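tool_call: predict_structure(chain=1)
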Amino acid sequence: MPPARPSRVNTLREQIAPGLRGVLGEFLVYLRIECGLAPASMEAYERDLVDMLAELSLAGAASPTDVTPRALVAHVQGLTRDRGYASATLARRLATIKVFCRWLCARGFASTNAADVLDQPTRWKKLPGVLSPKQLRALIEAASEPQRAGDGAPLWIRDRAILELMYACGLRASEVGAIQLADVKDESASILVTGKGDKQRLVPMGRPAELWLGRYLRECRPLLITAERAAQRRDKGRVFLTRSARPIERVRVWQIVKKHAAIAGLSGVHPHVLRHSFATHLLIGGANLRTVQELLGHADISTTQIYTHVDRTQLKDVHRNCHPRP
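tool_result:
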């Protein structure tokens, strides 16, 4: 069997000067232990910093004191000029750099904060993509016929349950894979969802999602758990599993959504579109903004308020169709 190809992060890590590599390791421990960041957030921080420190090392930086304002400005200029990063991606990169440089000062690795010279880019609020109820029905029902879905029974039942649950509960892709069997609350027909920062929220499922999840747990999941796999505890108590009975990962959830969107003839659909549609349809139906905030697990209501703008976009259509002088 050929050896696994090294990831880009590991390749770049080898290019970082030893003095900076050690500091990076300490910072990542700080993020994991003291800040308690989720694995996905940890990966993003590590990826961004490895990229930056490898570039700085190739330019001659050997220690934290070489992380200067001039070096940071050159790095950020390269992100926009050479790589053409969008403002949202650039904003995330800058946030990572600022946290890292602030930590360097707090730990005494640097006497001044080199990132103070960096400004956040202007970010336009982009309205999230939303599917109509008809489009959502087509997407979800694309997983109803195994001969079309291509998996064959019983994994199409799993896919249908995932799609139903994502729309019914407004789940992120990472939250789908994290659901434990103990998180399914049959008595209240709800799901205990663990979101960003390990924050938990209880979200009602609705009847269709409840029925398909129950069918998956009865007809599909037991067939994936053989006696050998059960002894190995491959499933880790998670609800949604792969064909090999391992917990489903975020990337696989993306693949499932994209696959059935293609079957339904829909483009530009990804897991977060189902979450956007969930929130928007609730508000259109008269739900309170605070309630939607709780269901989505948003810490700040300003994050939820973007969905009110999505709802207002319908006013033009109503005015055009109903006003006596369009």
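agent: Residues 133-319 form a domain with the hpI Integrase; Chain A fold (CATH 1.10.443.10). Proceeding to next step.
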